[in-house]
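Table 4 source record.
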Amino acid sequence: MDIPLRDGATTVGVGLETRGGVFTTLIPEGARVPCRQSAVFTTAADAQRSIKVGVLRGGEDGPVVVGRYELLLPGDAPRGAPQIRVTFAIGEDGSFRLSAVDGEGADLEVVSAAA
């Protein structure tokens, strides 16, 4: 799903759904495109094999789902140990891209899940 733009800027904030269904903005409304923003996340359980990320954008009646993704993690790390940098990027045409790297800088596989 593309992010709505006007005059080279986002018309809505883009963020993610955190625990409890709270919308946390990573790219604010009015951000000039192209743009990107990163945040670091970790696991909530021992030996967690993936992190699920719900990406949302602002809407007139509340947040709208842009996509749901699963970040596949290598190894069986203890809870809270992996440092996963998730990056949201919006292109000049409003296209959205999510990428992730681990604490060593290795790319993680990002799988698009059903919304």
